[in-house]
C-alpha cells in the first residue's frame, strides 16, 4: 500500500470545525510516516469528482474530515474499490463515526486511529445501502422525519439546527399517518398506515437518534423500523425514547430485517445519510462488504 494518502476535507463542517480539524488529523498521519495530500472541492459535485480521481490514482486511503454529509460523498468515492476509508468525525451529527466507535470532534485521535489501522492492516469490511447509483452508510429515512427535513430545507430563517426544531413543530401541527406499500426480500407486499419508515444499515441518524438501534453494519441486512399509525400524543411520548433506542419495544413499532426493500408512499422524499435521494418509491439493497473502513474491530 502506498504511503501517500488523501485527506478529504469539508471546511464548512460543524460551523468551520472541518478546516480546523484537518490540521491535527494531517499532523497525526504525517507523524506516523504517511504523505498527506488534501482533497478539497468547490462544491459537493466537485469534491466527489476530486475524491474519485484520488481513488482512481491509487491513493493509499481516503480520510474524510467532516460530518455525515462529507462521509456520504466519501462512501460514494470508495465503495466497491478496495480503497480504505478513514473517518475524522467533526460535523454536527457524526452518526457514521459513532456507529464505528470512533472519536467524535477529536481529529488528532481519529487521525492516529486511521494511521494505526493502516500500519497494522486492521481494516473492517462493512455493508452499505445502495439506491440506484447512490450509496449510504447509516439510515434511509422516510415519513415524518423526511417531511421535517423537507420543511427545514425550505426555511431561510433561522439557521442551524434550530430551524429543524421549528420545522418539527410545524409538521406536528399538520401530522397524519401515510399509507405505505412495503416490499421486503420475501417478495410480499405489506400495506400499512405509518408515521415513518427508517431503513438502517447503521443504528442512528440525526446526531444520535437510535431509530434502528439494533442494526449491525456487517451482517448483510437492513434493520427496518416501522412506526405505525399513532396519535400526535403517542408520537410525542415515543419520540424521546429514540435517543436510547427503547422505542423499539413500543406496540406501535415493528422491526423487519431484510437485504432488500422497496418503499412506496405518496408525497414523500427519501433521505439517506441526511441527504435527499428523491421521491418514493425507492428500492434499497444492502451490499455486504461494500466498503473497507479504518476502524477498531467490534
Automatic annotation (TrEMBL):
Specify whether Phosphoprotein is a keyword of the entry: no
Q: Which Pfam families match?
A: DAGK_cat, YegS_C
Question: A Gene Ontology molecular-function term?
Answer: ATP-dependent diacylglycerol kinase activity
EC number(s) on record? 2.7.1.107
| InterPro entries for the chain | ATP-NAD_kinase_N, Diacylglycerol/lipid_kinase, Diacylglycerol_kinase_cat_dom, Lipid_Phosphate_FormReg, NAD/diacylglycerol_kinase_sf, YegS/DAGK_C
The signal peptide stretch is none
- Does Cell membrane appear among the keywords? no
Q: Which cofactor does it need?
A: Mg(2+)
Into which EC class is this enzyme placed? transferase
In terms of domain of life, where is this protein from?
Bacteria
Which keywords are on file for this protein? ATP-binding, Kinase, Lipid biosynthesis, Lipid metabolism, Magnesium, Metal-binding, Nucleotide-binding, Phospholipid biosynthesis, Phospholipid metabolism, Transferase
Which parts of the sequence belong to the DAGKc domain?
A: 1-135
> So what family is this one in?
Belongs to the diacylglycerol/lipid kinase family.
Name the record gives this protein: Diacylglycerol kinase
From which source organism is this entry? Streptomyces niveus (Streptomyces spheroides)
Amino acid at each position: 500500500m502506498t504511503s501517500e494518502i488523501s485527506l478529504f476535507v469539508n471546511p464548512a463542517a460543524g460551523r468551520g470545525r472541518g478546516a480546523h480539524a484537518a490540521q491535527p488529523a494531517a499532523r497525526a498521519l504525517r507523524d506516523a510516516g504517511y504523505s498527506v495530500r488534501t482533497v478539497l472541492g468547490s462544491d459537493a459535485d466537485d469534491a466527489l469528482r476530486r475524491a474519485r480521481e484520488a481513488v482512481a490514482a491509487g491513493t493509499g486511503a481516503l480520510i474524510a474530515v467532516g460530518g455525515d454529509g462529507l462521509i456520504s460523498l466519501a462512501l460514494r468515492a470508495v465503495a466497491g474499490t478496495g480503497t480504505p476509508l478513514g473517518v475524522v468525525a467533526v460535523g454536527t451529527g457524526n452518526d457514521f463515526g459513532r456507529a464505528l466507535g470512533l472519536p467524535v470532534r477529536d481529529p488528532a485521535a481519529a487521525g492516529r486511529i486511521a494511521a494505526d489501522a493502516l500500519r497494522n492492516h486492521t481494516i473492517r469490511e462493512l455493508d452499505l445501502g445502495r439506491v440506484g447509483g447512490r450509496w449510504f452508510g447509516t439510515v434511509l429515512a422516510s415519513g415524518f422525519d423526511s417531511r421535517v427535513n423537507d420543511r427545514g430545507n425550505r426555511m431561510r430563517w433561522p439557521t442551524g439546527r434550530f430551524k429543524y426544531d421549528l420545522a418539527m413543530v410545524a409538521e406536528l401541527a399538520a401530522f397524519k399517518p401515510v399509507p405505505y406499500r412495503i416490499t421486503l426480500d420475501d417478495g410480499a407486499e405489506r400495506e400499512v398506515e405509518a408515521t415513518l419508515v427508517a431503513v438502517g444499515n447503521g443504528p442512528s441518524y440525526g446526531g444520535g437518534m437510535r431509530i434502528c438501534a439494533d442494526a449491525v453494519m456487517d451482517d448483510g441486512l437492513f434493520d427496518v423500523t416501522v412506526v405505525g399509525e399513532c396519535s400526535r400524543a403517542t408520537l410525542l411520548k415515543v419520540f424521546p425514547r429514540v435517543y436510547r433506542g427503547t422505542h423499539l419495544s413500543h406496540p406501535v413499532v415493528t422491526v423487519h430485517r431484510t437485504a432488500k426493500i422497496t418503499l412506496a408512499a405518496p408525497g414523500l422524499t427519501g433521505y439517506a445519510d441526511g441527504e435527499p435521494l428523491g421521491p418514493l418509491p425507492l428500492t434499497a439493497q444492502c451490499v455486504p462488504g461494500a466498503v473497507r473502513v479504518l476502524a477498531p474491530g467490534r
